[in-house]
Amino acid sequence: MPIFTLDPRLAQDSLHVTDLGLCQLRLSRDARYPWAILIPRRPEVIELYHLETEEQAQLWREGTRLGEAMMRHYAGDKLNVATLGNMVPQLHLHVIVRTRGDDAWPGPVWGQGEARAYTEADLETRRGELERLAREAGLLA
């Protein structure tokens, strides 16, 4: 039976925060935006329809609850939630808080400018914030 394995590019471009009921919660290493990535911990899942119906609903619950908490905390103007998978086929859900005047506003974040790395201290701060927001959203015990 196959086991869940994280795509190497997701591992390189993000930092593990915690595990939710279905998904691994990761922080994008691009410091320009509050940007979480949810990856269902299921092997060989590429498309949403590869998940069972209840798992599909759980993915959206985890994404929307986390997104709502992120919007409140980061005072966002718009929440971007997307699954693309053209570069990384493993199913993953981007949850990105956008603000007017951010580096890509009003366009999409993909292909806009260069990613900005976090300092180690800021990376740990943002990681801790996401974990706390997931807990506040009822996604962690």
General description of the model:
The protein is an alpha+beta fold and about 140 residues long. The chain is built from three helices and five strands, in the order αβββαββα. It has a five-stranded antiparallel sheet with strand order 1-2-3-5-4. A hairpin with a 6-residue loop joins β2 and β3. α2 packs across α3. It is globular. The two termini are about 30 Å apart.
What is the gist of this entry?
The chain is α+β, with helices and mostly antiparallel strands. Helix content is about 30%, strand content about 20%.
Chart the SSEs and their pairings.
Layout: H1 8-13, E1 14-19, E2 23-28, E3 35-40, H2 53-74, E4 78-82, E5 93-98, H3 120-136
Antiparallel strand pairs: 1-2, 2-3, 3-5, 4-5
Helix pairs in contact: 2-3
Tag the structure with descriptive keywords.
single chain, about 30% helix, about 140 residues, 3 helices, alpha+beta, 5-stranded antiparallel sheet, about 20% strand
Output the strand order for the largest sheet: 1-2-3-5-4
Annotation, overall tally of beta strands: 5
Taken from the alpha-carbon principal axes, the silhouette is globular
Number of helices, counting only DSSP H or I runs of 4 residues or more: 3
N- to C-terminal distance: 28 Å
- Give the helix proportion (percent range): 25-40%
